[in-house]
């Protein structure tokens, strides 16, 4: 497979290179793509050096698949040009996610929706991905009525500039700011821009994308998304109300059986998922599994995953693996 990674010099892009190598995706030739500024720069992949090219140059090189993580603007402009040239695009930006003609895919949840006609495939929002992997087996068993989620999100989701802001603040160094406020020793209850309804765009992504991926608009979702001074992964407190009664041991067994999910839940030994432990891992970790004692048929969970991995790069590479195994690329 000839694989283009668009945004190869960015945080998610470089994680994509790591994941492609780690999972042994059959890359015969890598085409690292970035902006005009990075053209000619060398990128190392599996011990070989590749020169960075621009998006237009990459189209001419005819990769089999192009994985984009270079921002919404680049995806809006270039994904259709790649697709027209017969190159399948897996796009990590939010540009195509809610387009009814595009599939929004988490392989463990709705991988079966992919067909040969899908030339631009959207990778969901990081916070949504880790939540739906956990919701899926529970929805199948007990039918979810409503989800209330609050997130605790890593600065890596914003990009290099945000990681630099946190580290600079920690060292007392003045520098560029990715956030309107100090993030070190602080919590910012705003991710992305505010919408007219008082929710942020990140919160609306969690709501709308969950319905689209689960293929069920009847699931009610409400979200509060929060940035915290953490590197390593996003955490989520999730309250789930079901249509049907459940047994806690069965919930645990269903989660243990779910592909891509690891249960870490042993209060007696103080074991629960934390971003420090999820960092660099492909799985979604779930713990603090307990009943909401204030309401029938309702469960509380704590979900953690590395947002650059399962929340972005790993999911995109898994989509590529799925396309490859189905003979669609
Ligand atoms: P560059 O490094 O040349 O700016 P991050 O989200 O971590 O900030 O990374 C954004 C990524 O998107 C970088 O690899 C960046 O390249 C890339 N990028 C930005 N604009 C374009 C463009 N017009 N074409 C291709 N890649 C782009």
UniProtKB/TrEMBL annotation:
It catalyses: L-aspartate 4-semialdehyde + phosphate + NADP(+) = 4-phospho-L-aspartate + NADPH + H(+). Residues 2-117 form the Semialdehyde dehydrogenase NAD-binding domain. Keywords: Amino-acid biosynthesis, Diaminopimelate biosynthesis, Lysine biosynthesis, Methionine biosynthesis, NADP, Oxidoreductase, Threonine biosynthesis. The active site is at 126 (acyl-thioester intermediate), 234 (proton acceptor). It comes from the Bacteria. It is an enzyme of class 1 (oxidoreductase). GO terms for molecular function: aspartate-semialdehyde dehydrogenase activity. The keyword NADP applies. Its EC number is 1.2.1.11. Substrate binds at residues 153, 227. Belongs to the aspartate-semialdehyde dehydrogenase family. Catalyzes the NADPH-dependent formation of L-aspartate-semialdehyde (L-ASA) by the reductive dephosphorylation of L-aspartyl-4-phosphate. Homodimer. This is Aspartate-semialdehyde dehydrogenase. The lineage of its organism: Bacteria, Pseudomonadati, Bacteroidota, Sphingobacteriia, Sphingobacteriales. The gene is asd.
């Amino acid at each position: 497979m000839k694989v283009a990674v668009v945004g190869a010099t960015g945080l998610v892009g470089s994680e994509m290179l790591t994941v492609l190598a780690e999972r042994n995706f059959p890359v015969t030739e890598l085409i690292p793509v970035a902006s005009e500024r990075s053209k000619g720069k060398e990128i190392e992949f599996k011990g070989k050096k590749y020169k960075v090219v621009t998006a237009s140059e990459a189209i001419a090189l005819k990769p089999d698949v192009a994985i984009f993580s270079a921002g919404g603007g680049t995806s809006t402009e270039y994904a259709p040009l790649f697709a027209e040239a017969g190159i399948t695009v897996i796009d990590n930006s939010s540009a195509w996610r809610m387009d009814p003609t595009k599939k929004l895919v988490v392989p463990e949840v709705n991988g079966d929706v992919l067909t040969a006609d899908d030339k631009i495939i959207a990778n969901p929002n990081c916070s949504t991905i880790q939540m739906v992997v956990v919701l899926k087996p529970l929805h199948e068993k007990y039918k979810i009525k409503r989800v209330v989620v609050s997130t605790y999100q890593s600065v890596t989701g914003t990009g290099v500039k945000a990681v630099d802001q946190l580290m600079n603040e920690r060292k007392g160094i003045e520098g560029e700011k990715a956030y309107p406020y100090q993030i070190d020793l602080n919590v910012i209850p705003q991710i992305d821009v505010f919408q007219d309804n008082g929710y942020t765009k990140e919160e609306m992504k969690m709501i709308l994308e969950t319905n689209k991926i689960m293929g069920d608009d009847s699931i009610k979702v409400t979200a509060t998304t929060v940035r915290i001074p953490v590197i390593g992964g996003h955490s989520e407190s999730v309250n789930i109300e079901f249509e049907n009664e459940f047994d806690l041991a069965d919930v645990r067994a269903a989660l243990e059986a779910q592909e891509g999910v690891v249960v870490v839940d042993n209060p007696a030994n103080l074991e629960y998922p934390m971003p420090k432990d999820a960092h660099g891992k492909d799985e979604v970790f779930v713990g603090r599994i307990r009943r909401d004692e204030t309401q029938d048929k309702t469960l509380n969970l704590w979900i953690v995953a590395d947002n650059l991995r399962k929340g972005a790069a790993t999911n995109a590479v898994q989509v590529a693996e799925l396309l490859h195994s189905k003979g669609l690329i």
